[in-house]
Amino acid sequence: MKASKNLNRRHFLGAAGTLTAGALLANPMQSVAKPAAAKTKLALVGTGIRGTSFWGKNIVDNYSKETEFVGLCDLNPGRLQFALNFMGVKCPVFTDFEKMINDTKPDVVIVTTMDSNHHEFIIKALEMDCDVITEKPMTTDEIKCQAILDAERKTGRKVIVGFNYRYGLQFSKLKELLVDREVGKITSVDFHWYLNTYHGASYFRRWHGERDKGGTLLVHKATHHFDLLNWWIDSDPVEVTAYGELEHYGSNNEFRGANCRSCAYTDKCKFYWDIMKDQRSVDLYVKNEKYDGYIRDNCLWRHDVDIYDKMAVQIKYANDVQVSYSLTTYSPYEGFKIAFNGMDGRIDSWEGIPWREKERVSQAELHAREMNQNAEEDDSAYDEIIVMKNWNPDYELVKVPRVRGGHGGGDVRLQDKIFKDPNMADPYKHSAGTRDGAMSVLIGVAARKSIEEKRPVKIAELTDIKISRTRG
């Protein structure tokens, strides 16, 4: 394949495809008629770090008996070559998405492109008779969200949204306690998430720091958390009020450079990151800047940064549960605190709070552990959930085996469900489709609108999804 510096999204996506209806089934892995022993044919669009690792090499290493990659697609031919080598596959590569589908006839398309482009590839894949697995967030605004919903209804194909957090051991145990009504009817939730100065800052170096690409962290990051809330509470959000500011990163600094490598202020910038010490980032990004101009170690003080770095959101649910949520992007530690207030008591849990942790590791290492797909449970460590009943001075300590790698153990459980055993029992409804993807995105979109328009925003304003008091 010849490298080109003039590739564009029109060429990448290709011409309009043909609408073909498929079977409306619970899991995309089941929706393609093929012999029982046949492997599911996968095509990947978007060969960045998430695509080549979690949705790439991880699948090759762990699910090759069930799946095979038949095509990779990206605008950047250098990253495509890296993906082939890194993933260890020999399939053809494409810079034209529609040509990949026509030539390789995949059963399932995995979408891991820039968030703002997810809808294009999801819709095109559905129209070309493929099912879809998409990285979260499903999309970045209500118009694109509605278009995805319409395409799924029209084509009969299906979309899975990769909400791995649902499958984490700690979060699953919280769901179990809530289903069992351990503290009675839930009335309110306090949920606060802290990104440290290593992980939090990284969003502002990347394209995620520009709202037209990632929809702000209320969409890109917080959809993880909003989906957990929707799943735990088992009801639909109805109204959102939010506040947010950009007061730390972006223009809020006296100096800035083009990027970390060429910066004259490396000796005084506490956020300086030497990308050249990360060989994988060099091979994936630095060596391939010449094709599309994407700089991975951008200055987080650049004026183009226009997302919020502190956010507070109030959410009212159809079953009258009220939620107070916040997201901070420059905390000294990485973690969260959550509390469910019920009629009969309260459930508290947390992760990463330093004074509650016996072990102390660097904040950079914490993030590396979270993203590590090969981490194992540590029998000597556990996460804690406190269940306390009203009128009782005692409390129950629920110990959950600690898994710091792979998003609390959720990554492997999500992919096992998709690729190994789509029919496995799922009593707590971990699997997420377009409705789940939409509702998490719509909270973030409503929060963004609330900040911009200085008003409460009704979820029903945004799409044609009918609000339900109980999701069932």
TrEMBL record:
Residues 41-163 form the Gfo/Idh/MocA-like oxidoreductase N-terminal domain. It comes from the Bacteria. The keyword Hydrolase does not apply. Keywords: Signal. Residues 1-26 form the signal peptide. GO terms for molecular function: nucleotide binding. The keyword Signal applies. InterPro entries: Gfo/Idh/MocA-like_OxRdtase_C, Gfo/Idh/MocA-like_OxRdtase_N, Gfo/Idh/MocA_Oxidoreductases, NAD(P)-bd_dom_sf, TAT_signal, TAT_signal_bac_arc. Residues 175-459 form the Gfo/Idh/MocA-like oxidoreductase C-terminal domain. This is 4,5-dihydroxyphthalate dehydrogenase. The lineage of its organism: Bacteria, Pseudomonadati, Bacteroidota, Bacteroidia, Marinilabiliales.
